[in-house]
Amino acid sequence: MLRALVAASDPESSSGAARPALGVGGASSPAEPAEPAAADLSAPPAAASDPPPDGGSLADPPILPDSPVGSTLWRVRGMIRTVRPHQWVKNLFVLAPIVFAKHLTDPSLIKSAVGAFGTFCLLAGAVYTVNDIVDVEADRVHPVKRNRPIASGRVPLSWAKVLLVVLVLTALGGASFGPPLFLLVAASYFVLNLAYSFYLKKIAYLDVGCIAFFFVLRVLAGGFATQTPISGFMVACTALLALFLGFGKRRHELAGQNAAKQRAALGAYSPRVLTVALAVTGVASVVTYFAYTLDPDTRSMFRSEWLWVTTIHPLFGVFRFLELVAGRPKAESPTQEMLRDTPFVMNLVLWVVEVLTIVYRLRPS
């Protein structure tokens, strides 16, 4: 995987013809779709009905048959797609503090943790809606993102703005019933995401740093919501893993067609630097997790010497993600592909089972 990434980092890779390793294999660029007419929103523009170029990786097949085109229900289902429920898995980081604090058997803490998870799911949906509103023009020149509900015209901008307000008010209203520090973190998460959407994401490398910080905020929110102490190792592992995933996503995007039009910061990224950043953060993530499993306080709390065995799963996950970055250039995002990738998901499930077995071998104290 790294060999393919390094090969793509050759200085000549700045030109479109020299990106075969992570690019589109030399295929000619697809014609840019015509922008949907603003005056007719009763039917979708032509681009919206086109299947995704990678054979349908934009979204999973609908559980129910799609609603009649142009109907209210059809647009509502487009709004559901806009908030990306399949991406809410990232908010499981909110639950990490109670899992590793051995509090999964405490009903009151579980209730607080689930409430915090729900709050961040709503906020995440609001953030995705903001991003799609802000990026609507850039998405229309992307071969896959042009099929998103707002970019394609399925969800009118006026509907998207109403959805945004409802999500934010509901999320922060719910957060106000929790500890003040939780409300502060939740509000900070949304405000910083607004800054990211309008400005910070245009600055190379700082944009990935912001994404990593958002993951750290999720962990902090979970700790504050349940009043559970958070270890420095947990914060470090979260930040490093998020940086690794973020750099992988940028490396993947940089090899695509119309990269600069799709994301303003991509023009300032260097393929070689991104490859090095992937290697450094990937190794650092695994090493930090391994150090956590061997820490005397960790072994004392879990009353086990065997947590280090689970390090094989983060190691496999890092290498598998690199394979996805290098091997699926037509996918919208490697971070989405990993959630559809059977080996990656199976490895994640095995890690969760092993950790829970080791951590909860005895009755939680």
Structure description:
- With 365 residues, the chain is an all-alpha fold.
- It folds into two domains: 81-230, Tetracycline Repressor, domain 2 (Orthogonal Bundle), CATH 1.10.357.140; 232-365.
- Helices cover 61% and strands 0% of the residues.
- The protein contains 17 helices and no strands.
- It is globular, with a radius of gyration of 21 Å.
Structure at a glance:
This protein is an all-alpha fold and 365 residues long.
What are the main properties of this structure?
365 residues, mainly alpha, Tetracycline Repressor, domain 2, 2 domains, 17 helices, 61% helix, 0% strand
Largest sheet: none
Tell me the quaternary state.
single chain
Give the name of the CATH architecture of the largest domain.
Answer: Orthogonal Bundle
DSSP summary, beta strand count: 0
Distance between the termini: 43 Å
Tell me the series of helices and strands, N- to C-terminal.
HHHHHHHHHHHHHHHHH
> So, the CATH homologous superfamily of the largest domain?
UbiA prenyltransferase
CATH classification, class level of the largest domain: Mainly Alpha
Estimated structural class: mainly alpha
What is the helix content?
55-70%
Number of domains: 2
CATH topology of the largest domain: Tetracycline Repressor, domain 2
Number of helices: 17
Mean pLDDT: 81
Topology:
Blueprint (H helix, E strand, L loop, with lengths): L1 H7 L37 H4 L22 H11 L13 H5 L6 H28 L1 H4 L9 H4 L4 H19 L4 H19 L7 H21 L5 H23 L4 H4 L8 H24 L1 H7 L9 H16 L6 H7 L1 H18 L6
Helix pairs in contact: 1-13, 5-8, 5-9, 5-10, 9-10, 10-11, 11-13, 11-15, 13-15, 15-16, 15-17
